[in-house]
Each structure stands twice: as structure tokens, then as C-alpha cells.
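Researcher: Go.
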Amino acid sequence: MTPPPAHRHLSAASTTRLLGIWHAGGPAYAALADALRQCVLTGSLAPNTRLPSERALAAALGVSRATTTAAYRRLRDAGFAVSRTGSGTVAVLPRPATPPAREPGGDAPAAVPAPHPDDVVDLSQATPAAPPSSTTPSRARSKRCPPTCPEAGTSRTASPPCGPRSPPGTPSAAHRPPPTRSS
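Model: Structure:
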């Protein structure tokens, strides 16, 4: 499988800091693979991050290259990494297994085919902040409306929406107090 495009690159030194104390006993390759898998699951290692080369990580951790090779193999087998010779190893989240196809019957809907990978939006990356120009209308609205106006976004009381701005000192029809009854 071709690795997805890497959005980030993780150096061997950064990986060492990220892992902290990773070997508490047992085979080193299994402990290393489990520590990297846990980093992906907790979000401290973002999906689509290129991992350091096996040789560089082995040197940084002070283990043999066979240990990092076996750890990366274990990550690939579990679905947490994708590798290609010459392109490196990229951390990914495993894809869920497709549910078994059901035979429609009764009121059950027909099986929907799985979407093509190009039709799927990857939501594993954070969304950038909205541009400053998108907040301008709400600021302008809050300046022309009194604090009790629901359009200004400061009150949830039911009142008519704000209309065009009235001349200073003249309340608009939307914000005029109700008439009082005299007996």
C-alpha cells in the first residue's frame, strides 16, 4: 500500500522525547511498537506524520536496527503505519473493517457500497481558524444593536430582529418599549 502524503516529519530526537521511558520489560521491539501505537491513539503523534528512519531511530534510542525494523513491522501489521521502500514510514490510524454485507429483507435498507477512498474527507487533521473577515458582520451587528437584541448574540429573549439603524436618540420600532395602558 502506498503511504499517504506526510503532513509532518518527526526527527529521531523528537521521537525519543515523545516516547519518554518506553521500555519497561519484555521484547524491546514490542515495547517500542506499543509506545508508538499509544502515541498515535492519544494524539501526541498525529496521523500522516512521517516517522524517522529505522536506522536514525535505532541510533537515537540506543537499540539495534533490528529492533526498530521489527517495531515498524508490528505497527504496519496492526494498521498504525504504512511504509514504502525509499519513501519512509508514515503513522496512520487503522481503517475499520468493512461490515459484512446483509441481505435486505423486510424494512431493512439495502446495503450501501463503501465510499471510494477519494470520496472520504480526512478529519484527522485540525481545521484552520476562520479568516478575520468572516467575523466582521457580527461585530458590526453588535455595534448597531442594543444588548438585549438577539441578533447581537448577547441575549436569548424573544424580540423582533434589528432593523436599519435609527437616528441617534430615536428608538427603533423593534426596541421601543411597549405602550402603557392608562385608566
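Model: Residues 28-42 form the longest helix (15 residues).
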